[in-house]
Amino acid sequence: MATKSAVILSSNGKYWQAFYYDTLGRRRAKGLGPKKKLSKRQAKVKRDRFAAQLILSPGIADTARPLKLSDLLERYLNSRTDLHKSTLDSHRLTGDYLKEFFGEEIYINRINRAIASDWRAAMANGELSFHTKGKSMAEASVCIHARNAKTIFNHAVRDDLILFNPFDRLKGNATEPDKDWKYVSLEELDKLLDACPNIGWKALIALCRLAGLRRGEALELNWSAINWQEHHFSVIAEKTGRRRVVPIVPKLYQLLLEAFDQAGEGQKQVCSISQHGLWRNFQVYRKRAGLKKWKDAFKVLRRNCETDWAQKYPQYAVSNWIGHNIQVSARHYLQVPAELYSKVAATNKAQTATKTATKQKSEECTKN
Are residues 38 and 91 in the same domain? Predict the structure, then answer.
């Protein structure tokens, strides 16, 4: 690590220079300014300031100055080979919002917590035109970009390019999500399956509703992933790339057997359907089944599955089958089904009826 005493003031005749060693031990030079404009005392002051920067942010020893925002974003995106494409695209979009607000040429050590808060407010108020066309951004989206910015600048802190993360105190969690989504009962599921035009569509809907798969996971599921003897199959998560094993309930098992019998020669995927216009086609079949429209069709089916499983199996196992942790389940997926309220109410039915009858009889006596 470079220290203040390791930065040496020198000159090449017309310019003052500061000599130091980078992280690989190579001797490097930083220009401080021309001798015509800087006295030796002023050059020493600049040398000392640069030495202090190296102590606080040793990562800049390899660049001789703090990184510009555009350079940091390029460095970060190129290094994140571990991220799923959709996640990387989200971080890239966050970078676009950062560049629009701060400018590509700003040095990252000049971004403080105050203007980081201004950036978040600008997104929420629709002041950034990139991809938003002047419209205010939903709070959930603002939180996603705030979290992404924290992650990006955490890497800069980790690499000693800046002393602290200016985005670390921004609100990154949206308010408690609304869980008043559509519950698709098994009877409604039967109607929906009957309305499907082929076994491929039936398998897609059943895998989402009865196995809790994401739509993309269901579409990519291969026959080779199914263990028919043990009644389970393995899935590679879209977001994390992690493998999980999902049980096959009897209703789904029978449907998969039917789909396997009808599968064509050489067909690898369970859901052999066109992926073009999935949302539009789903609405056609939903309407044909006589069901009311609901938002996030496939996501809701997945949430319904976890809600059903949570009534029967330990939550740690359910979260593992669904493919996320228990905290995510509690916050975003689990819904208290109406049947539970009815079940509890049934235990008080006789007592409630007695009290109601007594109250009615008392009121009749009062009237007479």
Answer: no
